[in-house]
Write a structure and sequence with these properties.
The chain is about 35% helix and about 30% strand. It has about 220 residues and is an alpha/beta fold.
């Protein structure tokens, strides 16, 4: 895997988690924050950390903001600073800007001022937990762009049988792309592959298709 370069603006809990995780995965990560205390806490866990005012275009330009694969604006509590940092990053040529916000209104504002991707961690995690509580057989799920998603399901009797018999594409519009059976992974299973209770199957489909199978499993 080729290492990527990331700039994380804001070294709070969310920014620190993103930065240190990316660094542990082998990527180059630069973190900036106005707080000296925040920078001191993370400086040994990333490639480079610096005290920088990320709302200043000149400061971002000196960091080589346009050269990073992605810029993550993790200023959660100060919406004004978040907006200004997002605008500044885009203004100096950032390729892809991900901005963290707390509310739906803030998300709309950030999208309008140029954020390529807007995330609401608390909201998104709340939705995820609620869905898993409503459908315990769903182990994990995430969006794949605005129109499609991926879902991992623990197979139970309603979904046991060969893929040809289950007709997942015809019934729900989803396709099985991998099956984990006791740690052994089967990628791209064929129609004669039999799903057994306890297997973990990964499905891909449109958001509408994912919702259909969610509703089926919740019955």
């Amino acid at each position: 895997m080729k290492a990527k370069q990331f700039l994380v603006i804001g070294a709070g809990r969310f920014g620190s988690a993103v930065a240190t995780t990316l660094y542990s995965l082998g990527h180059e990560v630069v973190v900036v924050d106005r707080s000296e205390k925040a920078i001191e806490a993370i400086m040994n866990q990333v490639t480079h950390a610096a005290i920088v005012d990320a709302t200043d275009e000149d400061a971002l330009r000196k960091l080589g903001c346009a050269n990073f694969d992605a810029v993550i604006v993790a200023i959660g509590e100060n919406l004004e600073a978040n907006i200004l940092a997002t605008v500044a990053a885009k203004g100096v040529g950032a390729r892809h800007v991900v901005s963290k916000v707390a509310s739906a209104l803030a998300a709309r504002v950030l999208a309008r001022v140029g954020a390529d991707e807007v995330i609401r961690p608390e909201h998104d995690m709340g939705v995820r937990v609620a869905r898993q509580l409503a459908t315990p057989s769903i182990l994990d799920a995430f969006d794949l762009g605005p129109d499609h998603g991926v879902i991992e399901i623990e197979v139970r009797p309603p979904l046991a049988g060969t893929l040809e018999q289950l007709r997942l594409r015809q019934r729900f519009g989803v396709q099985a792309i991998a099956v984990n059976r006791a740690g052994k992974l089967e990628v791209g299973p064929h129609g004669d592959f039999e799903l057994r209770p306890g297997d973990k199957v990964v499905l891909i489909g449109s958001n509408e298709a994912i919702q259909r199978i969610r509703e089926y499993l919740s019955e």
